[in-house]
Task: inverse folding
């Protein structure tokens, strides 16, 4: 209870801070001081002069103290705090003989909103949606942000919270989101879909199961088209798309089941290792390896990509330090960063701090950024984040190049140091002249721009040989090695070093 009160206080302080930092209020300060002087003389003026900074400091301290468990963008509680509140509502409802429910709501088609309008606009819209949803709720309800554009409500227990009341609540939340958001000279119109589950539908269930059921209902609502509402019913397909529940993958991440595996990248010129790419792997205790295509979307919708990023960075730097200590020559490890992480203004400082903690030079870390992220980012937080990392000395690799329409100016603006030619262009490049032309075009553009190149998804010796002949700098793919757990890397590094030393790499004639 005390925890929830603190959360409410922090959310209130954040809203106050946002209001007080707004231009309207700041413009009002001189008038306020003057009025104090007129009405109360010097004494009043001194009081205002002392009270205002004190108010700012107090609100700032409260809002910062609550950063754990609160969403940075909206000030809403995050998933774990939310589950805590819902469990509390369930316990109260059971004790009082009243009803509660969980509603999960998501803005429709938000995935490419940032691409169309820019990241700053996306943030603005999410903040506006959060404020409006908050305004549409009763006191006692708990609102959380549990995904990029996904919100959840834990309803305060009430005697008559039945199916009809829940539908009305979901519709009210939808209407709140549908209010236009003024942005620049235009208005942005959005719709949202909602799913909910009454606690009575799943008697004896805990918060996680109820939230999961509401998410299943949301998936049904979304499948039926924009602005749908669905109540959970037994027999609804569970997460048809991913098959992985958010709570399950969150627990796996927490339990350390998701780790980095490493795939080598080698120089086509020397055959020597130029680096490793760190790739997330989840080995489920019963199901075995779970494909990234299943668990990454689940992590993303649970809002856990930043936490994954932290884990991957930690594993990558731990591996580098271990190779260094064993005298193995690995120049760099590359880590994949999602768009959401790159938008976080604290990312560069956090990475700098981690590198420092491990005693590693920033040039040892490669930052893999998807071409689509660069192509979609106008001058905003993402741009600043990537450039800050490049300035620090990290190498920025442009991932999946050839699929995302990044402009040449974007390559310059983001201080990209290497392009990773996408697997779709590399496949069969030794046999398909069209593929070969595409690869050659990218290689010559990169050369003109002074950018290094790496071809990914190299599956055959023929592709490797052709890429080397065409002058591609580095290769990565099953033809060299599959991603492997850290424990297998030293053996692979030793055997690759032996291969290179036994038969000196004859320039670019491999295969
Ligand atoms: P990506 O960054 O393009 O990673 C390369 C993917 O291609 C990896 O799949 C890798 O296992 C696979 N691969 C490597 N060589 C070959 C090959 O020769 N042939 C074929 N067919 N595939 C090859 P994986 O590990 O399943 O990852 C898929 C995607 O998931 C990655 O694509 C990346 O976008 C994302 N991802 C993986 N780990 C992370 C992570 O830690 N953080 C983030 N944000 N994204 C990640
Ligand atoms: Ca990558
Ligand atoms: Ca890639």
Result:
């Amino acid at each position: 209870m005390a925890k929830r009160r603190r959360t409410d206080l922090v959310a209130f302080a954040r809203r106050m801070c946002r209001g007080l930092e707004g231009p309207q209020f700041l413009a009002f300060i001189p008038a306020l001081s003057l009025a104090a002087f007129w009405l109360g003389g010097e004494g009043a003026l001194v009081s205002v002069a002392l009270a205002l900074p004190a108010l700012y400091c107090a609100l700032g301290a409260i809002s910062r103290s609550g950063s754990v468990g609160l969403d940075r963008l909206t000030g809403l509680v995050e998933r774990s705090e939310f589950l805590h509140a819902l469990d509390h509502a369930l316990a109260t409802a059971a004790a009082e003989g009243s009803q509660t429910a969980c509603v999960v709501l998501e803005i429709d088609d938000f995935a490419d909103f940032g691409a169309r309008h820019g990241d700053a606009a996306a943030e603005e819209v999410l903040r506006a949606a959060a404020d409006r949803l908050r305004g549409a709720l009763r006191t006692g309800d708990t609102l959380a942000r549990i995904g990029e554009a996904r919100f959840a409500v834990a309803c305060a227990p009430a005697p008559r919270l039945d199916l009809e009341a829940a539908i009305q609540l979901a519709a009210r939340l939808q209407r709140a989101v549908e209010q236009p958001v003024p942005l620049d000279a235009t208005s942005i119109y959005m719709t949202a879909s909602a799913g909910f589950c009454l606690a009575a539908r799943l008697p004896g269930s805990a918060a996680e199961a109820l939230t999961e059921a509401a998410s299943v209902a949301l998936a049904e609502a979304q499948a039926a088209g924009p602005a749908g509402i669905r109540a959970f019913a037994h027999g609804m397909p569970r997460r048809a798309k991913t098959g992985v529940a958010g709570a399950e993958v969150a627990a796996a991440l927490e339990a350390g089941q998701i780790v980095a595996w490493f795939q080598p990248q080698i120089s086509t010129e020397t055959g020597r290792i130029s680096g490793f790419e760190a790739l997330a792997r989840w080995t489920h205790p019963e199901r075995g390896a779970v494909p990234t295509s299943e668990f990454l979307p689940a992590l993303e919708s649970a809002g856990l990509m930043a936490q994954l990023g932290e884990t991957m960075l930690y594993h990558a730097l731990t591996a580098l330090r271990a190779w260094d200590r064993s005298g193995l020559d690995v120049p760099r490890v590359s880590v994949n960063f999602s768009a959401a992480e790159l938008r976080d203004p604290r990312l560069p400082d956090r990475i700098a701090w981690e590198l420092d903690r491990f005693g590693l030079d920033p040039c040892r870390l490669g930052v893999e950024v998807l071409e689509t992220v660069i192509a979609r980012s106008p001058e905003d937080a993402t741009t600043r984040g990537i450039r800050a990392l490049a300035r620090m000395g990290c190498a920025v690799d442009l991932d999946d190049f050839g699929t995302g329409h990044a402009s040449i100016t974007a390559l310059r603006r983001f201080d990209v140091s290497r392009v990773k030619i996408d697997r779709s262009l590399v496949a069969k490049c030794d046999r398909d002249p069209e593929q070969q032309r595409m690869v050659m075009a990218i290689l010559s553009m990169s050369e003109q721009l002074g950018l290094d190149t790496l071809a990914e998804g190299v599956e055959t010796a023929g592709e490797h040989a052709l890429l080397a002949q065409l002058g591609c700098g580095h290769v990565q793919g099953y033809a060299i090695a599959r991603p492997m757990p850290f424990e297998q890397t030293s053996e692979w590094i030793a055997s690759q070093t032996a291969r290179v030393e036994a038969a000196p790499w004859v320039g670019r004639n491999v295969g």
